[in-house]
Amino acid sequence: MQSTAFSLYPSTAFLKRRKLLNQNPNHIHSPNSQKTLLYRCSLHGFSCCRSSRLSSLSRFNVWGSASDSFSNKSNWFKVKATPAPENADESVNPSNLVRTLQLGPMFAIWYLLNIYFNIYNKQVLKVYPFPATVTAFQFGCGTVLVIIMWTLNLYRRPRISGSQFAAILPLAVVHTMGNLLTNISLGKVAVSFTHTIKAMEPFFTVVLSALFLAERPSLWVVSSLVPIVGGVALASFTETSFNWTGFCSAMASNLTNQSRNVLSKKFMVKKEETLDNINLFSIMTITSFILLVPITILLEGVKFTPSYLQSAASQGLNVRELCVRSLLAGLCFHTYQQVSYSILQMVSPVTHAVGNCVKRVVVIVSSVIFFQTPVSPINTLGTGLALAGVFLYSRAKRMKPKPKAA
Fold this sequence. Notes:
Order of helices and strands: HEHEHHHHHHHHHHHH
Largest sheet: 2 strands, antiparallel
Helix content: 55-70%
Strand order of the largest sheet: 1-2
Number of strands: 2
């Protein structure tokens, strides 16, 4: 399953409005107010360069023209947090050093939790072939963790308005479908093959963005899709565990996951309320659990009976091992996505996408070693080609045309 990444990519941004000055807008030209503005911007996590003049406002990504932002009619303006310029002197900033030291262990935890989740999840699905029940149980584990987090004030519980929940609900629906389809695929084919197919996510992102957001991809982005599609096709033709159900469900999970990302851009960016990625993921987890429980009962019935658990025991896992590994898979499922969203709040989406590509490589290699999956040289070539295409895609997204001089 992907973070929502949801490749979250798991990332939905509610625009934040902050009232920075109570004085007359003309007052910002005084030296003291310049220092106040720069100081407050740094407190709110916006990146800026050292400057003694307010002319450095051009370094901020301001939504709207300067004349609109500083009109006499309003003391509000919106600022989008962006990475600091490359030529900024970051080497002497202690906060950047601390953040770098934090990111290393966080990426390691993210990858490690992914490895354990895929291993435990595959072991459970092999002997307990009820993907809807397994997925609902995993969402249930996440719901319990979210409630504990909010109850103990480990993270601030948000206040959700009706308009916000109306925007979150379709995201939760496709999030539920994406994780369910991924579990169906993992139950039918090898873990390595499922993640190779899921390398096609950038292809669906480009297509859906062009259809619904009218975003025209650059030539470099389109070119990066060629090795992705070719690599997945090559790996599929030579996959020993190939199964049409597993293949189609993994492809469908790509479609639903990227539909979630497109929907988040289309609907939720219009909202004025603030909601960070972690709380957004938490609300979607609870909503997905509530949605999936009745659907699971309709599709598979109640499978937590002793007879079904004993049938799993006859295939290699006793009841105790099945319950423990299901619980560990559920905990890893929620925590790795939580860590993923925490990383996303600290780095740019492109950096997160590169990290997600590396994560997929780590998961594929570890699953092949652990399950001793037979892999042919051509299959390895196809998988490597697809992953290389994903990396090129993330680099191509960083290449933006230079703005025309006014």
